[in-house]
Amino acid sequence: MNFEEQAGKSVLARAGVSVPQGRLCASAQEAEAAARAIGPVVVKAQVPTGKRGKSGGVKLAATPEEAAASAQAILGMEIGGFPVARVLVEEQAAIAREFYAAVLNDPASRSPLVLFSTEGGMDIEEVAATRPESLRRMAVDIRKGFGPADARRLLLGLDLGEAAVPVAAMLVDLYRVYRQHDAELLEINPLALLADGRVVPLDCKLTVDDAALYRQADIAELGAKEPLSALEERGRALDLKYIELEGNVGVLANGAGLTMTTMDVVSHAGGRPANFLEIGGEAYTKGTEALDLVLSNPGVKSLVVNFCGAFARTDVMAGGVIQAWKTLNPTVPVFFSIHGTGEDEAVRMVREELGIEPYDRMEDAISAAVEAAR
Ligand code: GDP
Ligand code: MN
């Protein structure tokens, strides 16, 4: 789950990290009122993506009138595919220097990685390419954690002057927040050194592991909602992993792996899958709902049912689909491929109860479905 800047900053603030004071506003009037209360402000588009500065989504405003005008200009923009519905109106910082700080999951070391650079404000990829000497990385052993001594070691040799102390403290805080919230990424760019010597996060990008949201309930409500289609909402309510796609070949298979294989073969055969759906071992108990969900997509012109049984029995899965079939009476052509445990029985059931002959080869069933959808 991604968190917009203001949500990420709320998480930091709740964890005791001080952030600039600001207000979330949905209109120019609200922005004007906020600036009247705060003073000179920066008006920032709130979308779960970066590069807002370069897109004109970050504007400085010295007066409430300017804040209103900036908000007016930014609200309704589209940045990285996201329409801007809200702006953060935040106290303007007197920036002396901009740094970069992040803690992220590092697949290479299979551990958290703390990153710091004295070159903030630009993309970290660009920093790594053009100013590698400014960049420090440290893989963290989660059993030992990341403390002040580690932070000092990381910053050694960088020209930070007196800022080294508050920067080190900030890195320790960031690691703590990252761990405490099961984050995959906590990135502060820029981490600003202010004229008065304080070090404050001016931007914040937070991504929390979706698999850990059950134990991050207190912050999950702050995260950006994924835009779901009506069918995807229905899938979620049924506890089925359903993703609506733009193609016209519906896919019903057992297990995520076989589903993705089926989708690949649909593409390979020149077609386009209409959905991803994982029903796992619940093909029997949720057969009707799953079939209904796939067929409710008006784009679906044909359907592939692809079952492959190892521990799961294909005859049980076929029984579920047959039962669902009798309730739903699909009108689109359906193509079966059934292999593995219980295959003979499953094939017989489909043949006798639905009057459909399953294909011997998966590729043939899928090609036929792609052809039928044309
Ligand atoms: P991003 O482009 O989406 O990463 O947005 P940021 O939040 O990083 O803002 C982009 C840039 O705007 C920063 O690198 C700063 O240079 C500038 N900026 C943001 N907040 C302030 C502020 O309070 N004062 C000043 N002077 N500049 C700011
Ligand atoms: Mn930024």
TrEMBL record:
Q: GO BP, one example?
A: succinyl-CoA metabolic process
GO CC terms:
cytosol; succinate-CoA ligase complex
Name of the protein in question:
Succinyl-CoA synthetase, beta subunit
Which EC main class describes this enzyme?
ligase
Is Magnesium included in the keywords of this UniProt record? yes
Record key words, sorted: ATP-binding, Ligase, Magnesium, Metal-binding, Nucleotide-binding, Plasmid, Tricarboxylic acid cycle
Q: Which gene encodes it?
A: sucC
- UniProt cross-references to InterPro entries, sorted A to Z: ATP-grasp, ATP-grasp_succ-CoA_synth-type, ATP_grasp_subdomain_1, Succ-CoA_synthase_bsu_CS, SUCC_ACL_C, Succ_CoA_ligase-like_bsu, Succinyl-CoA_synth-like
Q: Which organism is it from?
A: Azospirillum baldaniorum
Upper lineage is: Bacteria, Pseudomonadati, Pseudomonadota, Alphaproteobacteria, Rhodospirillales
Residue span, ATP-grasp domain: 9-217
Q: What cofactor(s) does the depicted protein rely on?
A: Mg(2+)
Is the Ligase keyword given for this protein? Answer: yes
The EC code for this enzyme is 6.2.1.5
